[in-house]
């Protein structure tokens, strides 16, 4: 079952919860995603697992317990670098993340370093996600559909950049000390728009800018001008942006109607479904680690160099990865 992509596993679970049998599930998924997207046998295997009460979509651990040599290697890896993530350890050792996590806890390790999360998804939000996933996954000519997506977001960029990572340590131990960040660091807001081909438009916003409906409306107009200059052949625009209050106001809805842009559904508190968050900003964050900027001109020059260094494939990968996350 490990060959089944995660987005198809979500579809199989949806069909199971909807009350269809495995054969009907395979037929429905293939109708939406294309012939051969999933085999009847694969659906039967997953349905059997769901009926047994295992609703996890992760691969089950390798048969049997990890070899002692693997457990010892895990211990050595984590002692050598406590900042390794379960994803990184999974790739190194060939076991799924839940297995790695379980054995780390069996070793008495705990993951220390508080992190703020935007919001905990409710059952209604999860159901909304499933509905949105299915509507997007059922799109015909999906590759062209993805190529028509324009996405964007904002991000604070610090003048002095530190980094902090979770560390696996013994419960009684403290994580290795790291420099404390300034409570009020000097920073500037980056606003950026991009698609499969690359950056379309970006700017550093003036200090104390409030992103309200009026300001965002002007940004959409700026984006339109940039699209006309940089993507003159583009006829269809599918906009994927956040849906916080300024972006769903009546003024913005009217502006988008005037622009004749299709707005793709996007749930709030879902950075894992926003290409800027899970792809572009992650690379930018890695690029900025330990960098110090004396002034905005220096910072802006560095950002420009970074964006120009990214190949087209980088942007394609970020957008084309969306179906795996749906």
Write up what this structure looks like.
The structure is a single chain. This protein has 326 residues and is of the alpha/beta class. The protein folds into three domains: 46 residues, Arc Repressor Mutant, subunit A, CATH 1.10.10; 41 residues, Arc Repressor Mutant, subunit A, CATH 1.10.10; 191 residues, Nucleotidyltransferase, domain 5. It contains 14 helices and seven strands. The chain has a five-stranded mixed beta sheet. α5 packs across α6 and α9 packs parallel to α10. The relative contact order is 0.11. One of its GO terms (molecular function) is single-stranded DNA endodeoxyribonuclease activity. It holds the Pfam family HTH_48. It comes from Rotaria magnacalcarata. This is Mos1 transposase HTH domain-containing protein.
Cα Rg: 23 Å
Strand order of the largest sheet: 5-4-2-6-7
User: What is the assigned CATH homologous superfamily of the largest domain?
Assistant: Ribonuclease H-like superfamily/Ribonuclease H
Number of helices: 14
Uncertain runs: 113-119
* Oligomerization category of the chains in this entry: single chain
What CATH architecture label of the largest domain applies? 2-Layer Sandwich
CATH topology of the largest domain: Nucleotidyltransferase, domain 5
Helix fraction, binned, reads 40-55%
* CATH class annotation of the largest domain: Alpha Beta
How big a fraction of the residues is strand?
Answer: 5-15%
The averaged pLDDT comes out at 80
Give the class from helix and strand content and strand pairing.
Answer: alpha/beta
Biggest β-sheet strands, sense, barrel:
5 strands, mixed
Number of beta strands: 7
Described by the principal axes of the CA atoms, the overall outline is globular
Order of helices and strands: HHHHHHEHHEEEEHEHEHHHH
Q: Domains counted in the coordinates: how many?
A: 3
Distance between the termini: 19 Å
């Amino acid at each position: 079952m490990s060959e089944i992509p995660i987005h198809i596993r979500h579809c199989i679970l949806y069909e199971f919860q909807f009350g269809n049998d495995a054969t009907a599930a395979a037929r429905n998924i293939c109708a939406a995603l294309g012939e051969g997207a999933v085999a009847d046998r694969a659906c039967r295997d997953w349905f059997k697992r769901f009926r047994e009460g295992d609703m996890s979509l992760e691969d089950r651990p390798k048969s049997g317990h990890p070899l002692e040599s693997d457990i010892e290697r895990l211990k050595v890896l984590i002692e050598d670098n406590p900042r390794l993530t379960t994803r990184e350890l999974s790739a190194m050792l060939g076991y799924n993340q839940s297995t790695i996590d379980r054995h780390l806890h069996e070793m008495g390790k705990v993951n220390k370093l508080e992190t703020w999360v935007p919001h905990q998804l409710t059952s209604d939000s999860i159901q909304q996600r499933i509905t949105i996933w299915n509507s997007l996954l059922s799109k015909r000519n999906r590759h062209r559909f993805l190529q028509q997506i324009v996405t964007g977001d904002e991000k604070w960029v610090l003048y002095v950049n530190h980094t902090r990572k979770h560390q696996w340590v013994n419960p009684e131990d403290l994580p290795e000390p790291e420099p404390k960040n300034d409570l009020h660091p000097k920073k500037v807001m980056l606003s950026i728009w991009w698609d499969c081909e690359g950056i379309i438009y970006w700017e550093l916003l003036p200090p104390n800018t409030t992103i309200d409906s009026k300001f965002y409306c002007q940004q959409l107009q700026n984006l339109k001008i940039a699209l006309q200059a940089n993507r003159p052949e583009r006829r269809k625009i599918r906009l994927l942006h956040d849906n916080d209050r300024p972006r769903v106001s009546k003024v913005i809805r009217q502006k988008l109607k005037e622009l004749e842009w299709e707005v793709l559904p996007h749930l709030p508190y879902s950075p894992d479904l926003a290409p800027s968050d899970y792809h572009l900003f992650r690379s930018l964050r890695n690029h900025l680690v330990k960098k110090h900027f004396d002034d905005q001109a220096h910072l802006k020059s560095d950002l420009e160099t970074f964006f120009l260094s990214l190949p087209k494939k980088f942007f394609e990968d970020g957008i084309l990865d969306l179906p795996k996350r749906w």
